[in-house]
Every structure is written in C-alpha cells, then in structure tokens.
C-alpha cells in the first residue's frame, strides 16, 4: 500500500522523504515525493489542512493528489508512467497514467493559489502537460514545441502559475497527443472559489469524473492507439460498469457533478428521477439567465459540464450516457442481426461441427446478459451488472445515483439496493387482456391511395432459385 | 573297350555333377523371404498346389476380416496378389535359364555306315567338347553367380512391390481421412448457407451477404467431390496392389486414420557403410562384377581354342575276305586361330569388365547419395509432420477455442465462427497430408536402405508443407 497522501502533508514528512531518497539530497530537497495510488476505488475527499480552505470534491473511482506548501506555493508532483488500471473487476488495462492510475489524480486548488507542479516523465517517450482551460503564462500552457520543449524521458519539468479563475478544468498531454490520450493520460483539475461566488453555489456533494474511451481487443491489455473513432470501451475515469462506483448522496443534498470529455465523440449524459441545471463549463460558471432544467446534457469533445440538482427523490437512479452503445463494453460491430431467424436444425448441424455452439441473438441481444458463458481472458462482458431485480444489461458509461434519507453527511459508502415502499414497483398485470380497439380505416383520407392493386401484393424476400433443397 | 567305359564313367560323373545344381525354387523363396523378411514381414510363396492355394485364401480371408493395417496390407499382397505370383514364377524361369548355362553340353555320338565294293565300314564316334568339360567348374560358378543375381533381382522386385503396397495403403487411408474432413467442411458450409438463407428470409441479410455464404457452400461441395474421387482413386490403387477380386473389394476395410508418428525418428545411423554394403543394388553390381571377372578368363580360352575330343571305334567288314577288323583311336578337333585371334572378343570382354567395375563403383557411390537423400526426405517429413502435430494443430485448436469465446461474448457472429471452423478443418487436412508424406517417406526410406530406391522417396517437401488434400506427387 503506497497511499501516502497524508504522509506528506506535514513538514516532517518531507524530511523523511528526503532522508529516504537515495539520490542527491540537494536535488531531491526541491521536489515533493510523488504519491502513488494502487487502488482504483473511490477515495474519500481530501480535506485540506494546509493552504486556503475549500470544500473538496470526490473523484469517482479516483483520488485527489496531496500537496505540500512551500513558502506559500502549493507544490504537486505528477509522475507520468505506465500503469495497470483495473477497468472492471477481472479486467485490467495496460495504460499510461499519472502516479499509479489512469486517469491521474485530481488536482484541487483555490482561486488565487500559486501552484507549482513538478512533472516527472517515466514514459518511454517525451510528454508535456497542457492545463486545459487555465489562464496562465503562455510558456506554461504545455503545448510541446509551441510553448516549451517536450519533457524527455527520465526528466522532470516544473510548471508554475496562479490559478486565476475558479472552475472545472482538466490536464492532459500535448505531445504525441493521440497516442498519449488513447493510452489514458489525463486528469481532473478543480479551482475552488476563494470566497462566496454569486454564480457558484455551495453544495453538499461534489463529484468529478472524466469521460474516456479505449480500444482494447478482447483478451488483450493495451489499447490500440491508432483507433480514431471506433473505440470499444466507453468509460468514466477508466472504469466500465459494473466497475464504476455509485454516486452516493443523502436525500435533499445539493449535488454537483462535473464531467469532462476526453473521448473523440460527444456524450449525452442523462440522469433519471431528477432535473438538473448546467451551472458551469470549462469557461467557468454559466450566467444564471442561461440555465434551464434538463435531464440530459450533451458533453461535446474536449468540453466540461458542471451539473447541479437537488437529490430529493429517494431511490437508485440510473445515470448514464444516452448513446446506447456507450453503455456496453467490447462488442463486435460485424455481428449480424439474428432476430427472428429460425435456428431449428441448423443449430444442430452447427453443433455437429462445433460442439460448444449455442444459438444467441435469435430473440435479441439480452441473451448475452443472461447467459454466463466463458469469454476470452481479460474481457469485460458486453452487457452485465446485476441489480436487485436481475441483470441490468449495461456496461460502459453507466452508474447509479443512490439517494438515501439515512445516509450520513460525508459518508460515501454504498448503502446497498434501495428498499422500495409497497406499491412503488412496477408489477405484472394478471387481469383479463381485452383486445385493443383498432381504428377501422387504415390510411387517412388526406392522401387516398390512387392505384390500389386489385390483388394484394405479397412481398417476396427471397427470389425463387433453382434447387434449394440442400 | 576298357578305356571307352572309363571315359563313359567320367561322362556319367559329369552328368551327376551337372545335375545336382538344378534350381530349388522353394529354397530360393525361403532365402529371399529371410533376406527381405524384416522388410516384408511376411512369407513369400509361389503357390503351385491346391493346398498352398487354400492356405493363401485362408490367410487372405483372415486379413480381410479386420481393418487392414499397413503391415497387414503387405502380407495380404504377398498372399493374394496374382501379379506378385507372376513375378515369382517369372523369376523362377529366369533362374532356371541361368542354371542352364552351367551345364555340360551333351556328348555327340556319330554313327557312320559306309560301303566300298565289298567292304562295309561301321564307324562309331563319341565326342565331347573337351573345353566344355575342362571349363565346367568355372561355368558352373558363373551360372551360380547368375542365379544369385536373379535372386537379388527377385528380392529387389519384392521390395519394390511391397513399397508400392505400403505407399498405396498410406494414400488410401490419408485420402479417406481427408474426405472425412472435407465432409465436415461441407457440413459447416451447408449450415452457414442455410442460416444465411433464413437470415435473408427474415430480412436481416442482403443478397450479397447471403450469396457469400452460399458460395462457401458451393465451393465446399466441389472440394468434397474432388476429395471423394481422390479417396476412391487411392483406394482402387491399393486394391490393384493387393490384387483383390470384386468380392474381396467389398470386404476391404481400412483403419480410420494413419498411424501415429513414431516417438523418435529412425536415426541417421541407418546410413552406415555396412548398410550400404547390404543394399541389393550394391550386391547386384558386385555379383555382376564377379561374373564379368570370371567369364573374362573363360571367354579368352574359348575364343582361342575350340577343342573337341572324340573316341572312335570303327569296324570294317570285308565281305570278300569274310573278315572284320576293328579300328580304335581318338580324334582331336582344334580350331586354328588363324583369322580370328579373338582380339575383338577380348576387347569386348575387357570393356564389359571395365563397365561392370565402373557400374559397381557408381552404384556404391550412388547408394550413399541415395541413402542420404531418402533419409533427408524421411527426416524432413517426420519433422514437418511433428511440427503439424505439436505446433500447428494445437495452435489451430487454441484459435478455435478463442474464437468460440469471442462468439460467446458476441464479439463475432456465427458466420465468423463457421469460417474459423472451416479454416481449422483445412489445417487438420494439411496435417493429415503431412502425416501421409511422412509414411510415404518412411516406406521409401525402408526401400532405400534395402537398396531399391523408389521415386516417391524423393518427395517434395514444399508441397508437403502447403495446405491441401493432394500434395507431394
């Protein structure tokens, strides 16, 4: 366990880190020891005990990077390195990330903080970090070649600027970007307002996550970095459902969720049971006059959305991307539609040649979620996750907002499935089923049929051919 | 008179001497059987009696009662094949002819009756080719050499026949096995085509998609037909090698698959010098050289001299005087070497000896090379077949399993699953072909070590390595 987030927060910790270092003390004295994370779980919020106070966020299946104060400057140490990220239980990806995980840790600062970030490159190639959305000196913007030389392998660069604008931001490389983002190089950045802000409300719970997508062949571990659009894993913070933690809140909590999109397509993010307001983008808080209630908001490529709602309805509420294939895991794009195809005898013939063959898809794809069949190694099932009433038949960008009245403030532990009150669950109708009344005249009178064939035309799907009795 | 009978006794003794060397063919067959016994694994017999024929028929029936293994096929051909019987009979004839040249020419008895006025002369002359007699031991040795050659020739023919039987058996079993897999491919393609038809019927497939699947089936059907004929042709070739009657053909059952590879290949030590010396072709060339050497001196002698010795006893009756007188004596005919001193004949002899010597040398040298080539063909075929068994087929199996897992995860559809199955089966067919090449090379190597190299021994390795039902010939 190398979660030493609290280890470094005191001055003593730095001394210990220096003493423990085997390299030059003088050289190391300038650097905060990098803190690594080995678990993909959602960590409790990191309550600040140095620097300006703020209300910390919770990173879904992630964590916040600890810092040290050095003469009034907040110092962070990011280490860009290859990592193994568990994307779902039993499914691990070989990614590139920061400080042991991908995405990297969330950086939380307060408006007006002077921030110094050490970036050590342990990747096999050069990198850089672009602080997406920040106001900063041009030479700190992190576009390699344009603003700075790229950080070579094995070297440490320092970025330093003042977090001028409160809001929701992210960081990602701007060197060999397509590769490095496809490999999972990204992280969240929150700049909290230093005082009460007219457009930024205080909330009880503040969740953050990044949308990301990978193309990992089932059974493989490393994403295909040449993929441009046709990704097969759609994830939140590099986790796929059912590997994504629920967003646990107390009834009547004011909840903020900040979502950043670093995939190559837009994602209509949809919340059940509540309406929300989009209160911010990466441009900052939205003017109140522009806000309206929605249940789905589209997060375009490279954008941030900050949504807020009052969690006043108890229950387990689905929260997901509304692109239905984004709520599935790896699947075949060339799999033919089998719906309605009669498999009798053919299935037996195929079984004679392929003994393990089993008919699937004849009635739709739900077969997939129902049948527990062996898959290639290191593959997350396409549709899975079991709820209290059976298979949820979901994967990818799907989670649940759990609203409970007895959840304690600041408690993010999963309370289990919602216990419905009697009569509040859809039930089977067991009464009589009268024939539905159908209207008599098909086709309106506004566009009457002109040349109605005398005989009813029978659509022939298959043209008659020679001898078909094979 | 006394000396006449003395000479007669010598002649009789010569007859006996010449007669005792008459061909014992059964013994010859027993010798041949033992010399190539490890090769044939069965007994050679030329059946001449009803009993022998019955015994052969019984053995044939016993062998046909069960699936016929490779060695059983050889035994069956030894017991049943009329062409092998023909071969044996022909060989017998050749040996008998060779024997003939080692015999003494019969003595010539000349009887004269001449009348002159009152005189009646009755002349009796018993003449021998004196040289014939003198060279008899040598000629007998030559004849024996020729018989020995004929024996070797017989062994070689038997080895060739047996090798052909083995190879025909290998081809028959392999093509039968390939046919079985072609049937599986066909079944998979048929299922795919039928499913595609229903897919189109349900509106899920377009014409092109359906046609593609139908096309797989159409091609598989063509391949199946070809495999069916290949199997029939190979089986009929075996039937001919075994010399089966139509009724016996009905009974013929082959095992389902080729035998497993031997755990270890035959080591290169089969190529030792002693193995080379034992080769039939080397032995044959050696015998030919010996015969050439022996006949050289003999022919030199006969080319110069043709000596006939005659014993004469004439009786002259004088009717006028009423007396008779006997005249005794001997005659010696010598052909005078005036016109022909035998130089051309000697030259021919010398040339033939030289040719025999060089043929021998060439055979010995060629034998080494042939052994090495056969061994290389054998070893390569073994390694390729083992590679198929240990690498390609297991890899294909793994691919099949992984493909199945992908089908389970709906990462691929049933048509990809079927396509993979077809490929898997064609790999298995290629593996069968590799096994076939191995067993063909195995038979060829055995023939080569015995000294009757077969052309099929020089199999083409590249064609063995390529996929396909037919290859290597």
UniProtKB/TrEMBL annotation, chain A:
Residues 1-29 form the signal peptide. Gene3D superfamilies: Cupredoxins - blue copper proteins. Keywords: Copper, Metal-binding, Oxidoreductase, Signal. It is found in: Periplasm. InterPro entries: Cu-oxidase-like_N, Cu-oxidase_C, Cu-oxidase_fam, Cu_oxidase_Cu_BS, Cupredoxin, TAT_signal. Its main location: periplasm. Pfam families: Cu-oxidase_2 (PF07731), Cu-oxidase_3 (PF07732). PROSITE patterns: MULTICOPPER_OXIDASE2 (PS00080), TAT (PS51318). Residues 90-195, 221-336 form the Plastocyanin-like domain. The keyword Ribosomal protein does not apply. GO terms for cellular component: periplasmic space. One of its GO terms (molecular function) is oxidoreductase activity. SUPFAM superfamilies: Cupredoxins. This is Copper oxidase. It comes from Rhodoferax koreensis.
From TrEMBL, chain B:
It comes from the Bacteria. GO terms for molecular function: efflux transmembrane transporter activity. Transmembrane segments: none annotated. The keyword Cell inner membrane does not apply. This is Transporter. SUPFAM superfamilies: Outer membrane efflux proteins (OEP). The lineage of its organism: Bacteria, Pseudomonadati, Pseudomonadota, Betaproteobacteria, Burkholderiales. Residues 1-18 form the signal peptide. Coiled coil: none annotated. Keywords: Signal. The keyword rRNA-binding does not apply. InterPro entries: MdtP/NodT-like.
